[in-house]
User: Fold Malto-oligosyltrehalose trehalohydrolase from Streptomyces roseirectus.
Amino acid sequence: MQFDVWAPQATRVTLHCDGATRALARDPERPDWWTGETEASDGSRYGFAVDDGPVLPDPRSRRQPDGPDGLSAVVDQGAYAWRVEWSGRPLQGAVLYELHVGTYTPEGTLDAAADRLGHLAALGVTHVELMPLCPFPGTHGWGYEGVSLWAVHEPYGGPAALKRFVDRAHALGLGVVLDVVHNHLGPSGNHLPAFGPYFTDTHHTPWGAAVNLDAAGSDEVRAFLLGSALAWLEDFRLDGLRLDAVHALRDTRAYPFLEELSRAVDRLAAETGRPLFLIAESDLNDPRVIAPRERHGLGLHGQWNDDFHHALHTALTGESQGYYADFARAPLAALAKTLEGGFFHDGTYSAFRGRRHGRPLDRSRVAAHRLLGYSQTHDQIGNRAQGDRLAASLPPGLLACAAALTLAGPFTPMLFMGEEWAASTPWQFFTDHTDPQLADAVRRGRRREFAAHGWAEEDVPDPQDPATRARSCLDWSEPEREPHARVLAWYRALITLRHSHPDLTDPDLTDVHATFEEPSRWLALRRGDLRLAVNLAPTPADIPLGPRPARVLASWDPVEPPGPDGLLRLPGESCAVLEQD
Assistant:
């Protein structure tokens, strides 16, 4: 079997495989690469030593059975017999479901999560978006401090378990999207610097030196990241990738890495005949992220829309701290602007940032499904001091309004696991660092961060305490009892409507119209012949929907259709979807 590794600064590279050692030779075809052959098979353990240093895992390792610091293992990608022929599911018309493998079930494995996929198929979602799966130290964590960007965290079940998960999802008609982190690697178990200039001091990020996308040696670093992304799509038959915090990718080259990646993914989609897509997390509010490459954009297929979340969250909760301050002055106006125009900050002044932010989005050219809308995500819950969900502070009626605005709104909807039944379990920040000093630094940093916002240290959960992760696991007995069962039925009804009424998946943002009354706290949305009305106030509201006759398709509380005056009498903290003739 042939082994290869990029080590441009090395004078000697040694392969250690199943107890045998051999020196690698410089590759005559590829500068700075080392290559050699030895006996190996599926499961063989191996690593590389650079200049007689310690034996380290392969930067392109496909499996780390003993964690990020252990030897790599050979993986025969052809050994798994796929059971399902899958033609894919596109982003347009999708309903995504963000899922963290380690807390979706108490077992915290991919196989256990696969056993619960029937719930998602019955719910009506189309894609499962898995939070990061790359190996990280310890057993439990969010996954954003992963290393070994080509491998699957062994406590989750490793690469074979991911293939079983994808096969089961596809058998149920569910696509699978994976959250990948290219903007940094974890502080523990990251051995890439021993091999080459994977990082650069030319730029700095919140996590330290930036991933090297534009300095010397960056051609190979970009190829490393691009190859990893394509491997997830090819070897595991994934349907898309979510790219974490692309605004933190420091890249000054004329041909941006994200454009290179989108081109490669589109090429792979054409070769496989499957729709493949990339979804960016970006706080830039820059339409060029999702603009086609032929219009000088990066060509990504979608992006998270935090403006929608912030406007909705502020309207529901009244919170005004931090970045919510920009939306809190007139939350319904902010929500209406975002629903119609995609971004709230489109060149407007942001008091939170102390500057103007964003760029206008051309509603006539940007399809609505390219923006993802959500009322909750892992970030927006887990980065609260106690990891409290909306269900911890809002009555079911307001949760129903949040669901209606997300699932009947113009954007591709995304749910966070457990949201669909108003889960009472929090989702807190937890880690399992094996380095005591790093564990203590994270613990103290977390408490210091929230102490600045008025939280007592004892009220901030200890990320290293196993109980913090245990509290964050979903309680699967809840969907069968009230009030959770009613909320779940509402989510199912809304998703059914979204799939059955073309107006709800119409990508034309110019056909989205919102009216609202700030003091009375109601908002109405028109999409084609459909009308969505939400009343966030505790008292009933008369909401004008126009003179055309209408029938109620779904409502949280029983309501009568509007009379000849076109007014919908909507109870407090309630919502309804109607169709006009």
Notes: The radius of gyration is 25 Å.
